[in-house]
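Backbone shapes recur. Consider a single case.
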Amino acid sequence: MTAVPAALEARSLTQRYGSLTALRGVSLRVEAGEVVAVTGPSGSGKSTLLHLLGGLDVPQEGEVWWAGTRVDTLDTQVRATRRAGQVGLVFQHHYLLDDLTVIENVLIPSRLAGQRDEARARDLLARVGLGGREAALPGVLSGGERQRVAVARALAARPATVLADEPTGSLDRANAQAVAQLLVNLAREERAGVLFVTHDDRLAAFADRTLHLLDGQFTESVPALL
């Protein structure tokens, strides 16, 4: 039988910035339907890892694979097009477009992928507690509300992989739990691979397993607490 490719795979990633080595031969697999948390102190290489996994940068050494396709060797534009249809990104900053409504912001990735699933966008907004705010502009939203819009936007195109950088960092406890549960449900219901970076043990508890990054290397893998 042919092995099923992982939703996301990194093989021996090494990245240096001058004399600083941010990653030292890091490897990981995120299976379809799996939720993985990456923890570690500031400066441990977490942001560098996310940028490489999301195809926003290319590794100096090593390989990045999305659903069985190697992507770090692709042309920048080809990689960006593939990312629009396969990978949902949630950054610490929301990066919403201020002149577009909430629902128009959420629909951006699906439109780039050649879709326009407004029903899904509305459902996602409802699931992050923003039902009824579709016509609002980002300027009237709180910081936490904008971050929840950004989470909905990342999921709109039904990505095979979701990468999130502190997705609940600006949220109160109740909304943080709702977003964490949404990410888990996405993995379970749509067989997406989910990887998020966090300092929050409560968020990490939602993951199937947790990888700890220290000085550019994984030091341990621990099971979920829930």
About this structure: The mean pLDDT is 90.
